[in-house]
């Protein structure tokens, strides 16, 4: 099953989500509307709202509440992108200039705040305390994950455990909230809610692990961003952490120095060390392990087209090239 097949399963619901997103982007301040529309409509795959819709279908009902939750999740995700691009001083995302590159840092941060606020206005309309609890916790964990990543920048002593804490917070948490929130919205049994929470978490981990592989192996045009950004920013992601733990003294020293100074001057030499240590294969295997755990969590669900799609989506996350 391909992503297009999965999207076709929830095509009408996705259309309703898009309509609601466009309605909720309305603002009395033209620049807010302009920037928000630019980033929301800039070609993202919208995997997180897709997870809300698929989970709802797998549990037997996808109504207006699920559509609203999917839009909320997309607004939260978009707000984090606006803030991330400012923090990372990124100039390209999804093949387009970032909002901060076009309009500056201050408007980008403030429009991100607008989207956060709008998402919580919509969340109040859902009037579901359990979902509110999940999403309010999620926004805190995401912020903590981003701050933790910031403290690790240019720190070659970052451990694999610390790295996993970062990606759990900054990426996997919102995947988890998408599936867990949908199950909670439908008042699914506690064990089903936990299974969907686990599925979302493991899917998110796999997604970010592959992102970090593609930062070194990907194609800039396919990815829609600059290859090597992580090394340029001095971010010690898993391929580098594994290489430092397994390289000889010379290789370890090279990678450590490259992380400390940032930039791409040593990219080729670092990649040689990474390849010799099998660090890309190690990172991909970690992603595959998460996929297996995600699929195992789905065993609790009854068979359905939506369940099959969720199983396939986990594989797609680990096999993607962009």
From TrEMBL:
EC number: 2.5.1.90
Domain of life of the source: Bacteria
PROSITE patterns reported in the protein's UniProt record: POLYPRENYL_SYNTHASE_1 (PS00723), POLYPRENYL_SYNTHASE_2 (PS00444)
Keywords: Magnesium, Metal-binding, Transferase
Gene3D superfamilies found in the cross-reference section: Farnesyl Diphosphate Synthase
Cofactor(s) annotated in UniProt: Mg(2+)
Reactions listed under catalytic activity: 5 isopentenyl diphosphate + (2E,6E)-farnesyl diphosphate = all-trans-octaprenyl diphosphate + 5 diphosphate
Signal peptide: none
Name of a matching Pfam family: polyprenyl_synt
GO annotation terms (biological process): isoprenoid biosynthetic process
Entry GO MF terms: all-trans-octaprenyl-diphosphate synthase activity; metal ion binding
Protein name: Octaprenyl diphosphate synthase
Species for this entry: Parathalassolituus penaei
């Amino acid at each position: 099953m391909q992503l297009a097949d999965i999207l076709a399963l929830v095509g009408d619901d996705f259309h309703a989500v898009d309509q609601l997103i466009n309605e909720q982007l309305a603002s009395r301040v033209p620049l807010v509307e302009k920037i928000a529309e630019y980033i929301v409509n800039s070609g993202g795959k919208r995997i997180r709202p897709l997870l809300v819709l698929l989970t709802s279908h797998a549990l037997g009902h996808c109504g207006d509440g699920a559509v609203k939750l999917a839009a909320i999740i997309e607004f939260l995700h978009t707000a984090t992108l606006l803030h991330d691009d400012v923090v990372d001083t990124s100039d390209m995302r999804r093949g387009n200039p970032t909002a901060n590159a076009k309009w500056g840092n201050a408007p980008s941060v403030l429009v991100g705040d607008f989207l956060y606020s709008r998402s919580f206005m919509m969340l109040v309309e859902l009037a579901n305390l359990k979902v509110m609890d999940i999403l309010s916790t999620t926004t805190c964990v995401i912020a903590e994950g981003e701050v933790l990543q910031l403290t690790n920048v240019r720190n070659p002593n970052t451990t694999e455990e610390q790295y996993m804490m970062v990606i759990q917070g900054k990426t996997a948490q919102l995947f988890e909230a998408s599936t867990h929130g949908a199950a909670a919205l439908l008042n699914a049994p506690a064990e089903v809610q936990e299974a969907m929470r686990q599925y979302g978490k493991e899917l998110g981990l796999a997604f970010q692990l592959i992102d970090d592989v593609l930062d070194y192996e990907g194609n800039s045009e396919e990815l829609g961003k600059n290859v090597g950004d992580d090394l340029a920013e001095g971010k010690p992601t898993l391929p580098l952490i594994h290489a430092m733990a397994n390289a000889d003294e010379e290789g370890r020293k090279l990678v450590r120095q490259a992380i400390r100074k940032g930039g791409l001057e040593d990219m080729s030499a670092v990649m040689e060390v990474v390849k010799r240590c099998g660090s890309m294969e190690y990172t991909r295997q970690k992603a595959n392990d998460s996929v297996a755990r995600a699929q195992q969590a789905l065993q609790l669900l009854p068979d359905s087209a939506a369940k099959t799609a969720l199983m396939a989506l986990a594989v797609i996350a680990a096999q993607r090239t962009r």
